[in-house]
Amino acid sequence: MKNVAILGSTGSIGINTLKVIEAFPKHFKVIGLSSFSNTSLLEKQARKFNPSYVAVVSDKKSKELDRALSKKNLKVLSGAEGLNIIASHSKVDILVVAISGAAAVYPLLAGIEAKKHICLANKESIVMAGSIIMKKVKRQGALLIPVDSEHSAIFQCINSSNISEVSQLFLTGSGGSLHRISKAHFSKLKVDQVLRHPKWKMGKKITVDSATLMNKGLEIIEAHHLFDIPIDRIKLLIHPEAVIHSMCEFVDGSVIAQLGITDMKLPIQFALTYPDRRKTPFQRLDFSKINNFSFTQPDIMKYPCLSLAMAAAKIGGTSTAVLNAADEVAVCAFLNGKIGFLKIPAIIEKVLVSHRFIESPTLDQIFESDKWAREESTRLI
Ligand code: NAD
Ligand code: MG
């Protein structure tokens, strides 16, 4: 029986992780849960799973939750520090980092420091501070299993092979909600149109990123750090059927692909049970329903966010943190109806061009660049 803590348990990945844990009651016990401010759902989760610790970042909300759960035998932690306490707690065997955004960096580092088995869904942390994080993973000998479906696929394809035997990675993407819409229509796109993802059910921010292909750009940066492979050996393929979640080509010309249905519970289950595999109660791939596999190169002219991400990836340093922050602010403004769809890449480009670049930044410098990029993007909106 392994004790599992889920940071960000009220989000899309967090909820799916609890569904996987429910399916394996003999293997996993929930020991910690956290949320930014959604205490109503966190309270329900705490009553159902009986963790020893829950953390709420918002101070006021944590006091409310403390009162609501006063009869239960658990500790309510508050503030960002609560996340670090859970991440490094001696009773935690497996740490699931399902927080969105930059807030995941410090609890992730705390989990690595404490040598936890980490299931990492959050991608912003790696995009912002991948070099620092991966150095610490190596130094501590922590186990970092990716949950993002493409990276879970690559991890499974590489398996125990040496990375020097990998010639290139093929990261696949369905093409998002705008794959079949011509660029001529982009200036008039409505939010609900952009949010209609054909294959995956995800949060709004990542769904917009899938439409602009920024999500693929972020994933290339993520793969570069997680697997220590140069950016120019990671190729993006648009694969609208979304059955192959990514592929790995080896030096001998052999290509290994990972296939599955489009359900995040599968990579979550893999990350939780690693290195074992357990019989899944969830849906499986039905080959009788698949008629065709197709692959195309992404249209760079149609998706300027992808070119911006690739440029930032090649430059490295503080560029990827700036890219990530500007994208988060611009996407939020688009979702709130403050800017049109085409303004997203325009804002990111302006912020990237005007930022003060640092080649090998410290964590403090990364967070300073992140803060500056958020302020600058907000000013441009
Ligand atoms: P979400 O918005 O649904 O949930 C985010 C969770 O993080 C919530 O529990 C929220 O309370 C918590 N949170 C938000 N801000 C916080 C802060 N400042 N401090 C502490 N907690 C905070 O997000 P999601 O879709 O579940 O995605 C989580 C992460 O996983 C993201 O980095 C995303 O890119 C990545 N990811 C998601 C999917 C998916 O299918 N949803 C797939 C691949 C990768
Ligand atoms: Mg993904």
Describe this structure in words.
The chain is of the alpha/beta class and 381 residues long. The protein has two domains: 2-146, 3-Layer(aba) Sandwich (Rossmann fold), CATH 3.40.50; 155-251 and 295-380, Rna Polymerase Sigma Factor, Chain: A (Orthogonal Bundle). 45% of the residues lie in helices and 15% in strands. The chain contains 15 helices and eleven strands. It has helices spanning 12-23, 39-49, 59-68, 79-88, 105-113, 124-140, 149-158, 191-194, 204-212, 214-226, 265-273, 304-315, 319-335, 343-354, 363-380; strands at 2-7, 28-35, 53-56, 75-78, 94-97, 117-120, 143-146, 166-173, 234-238, 244-250, 255-259. A seven-stranded parallel sheet has the order 4-3-2-1-5-6-7, with helices on both faces. A four-stranded mixed sheet has the order 9-8-10-11, with helices on one face. Helix 6 packs antiparallel against helix 13, helix 9 (204-212) packs across helix 13 (319-335) and helix 13 (319-335) packs antiparallel against helix 14 (343-354). It is globular and about 60 Å long. The N and C termini lie far apart (50 Å). The mean pLDDT is 96. The site of nicotinamide-adenine-dinucleotide has 25 residues, from helix 1.
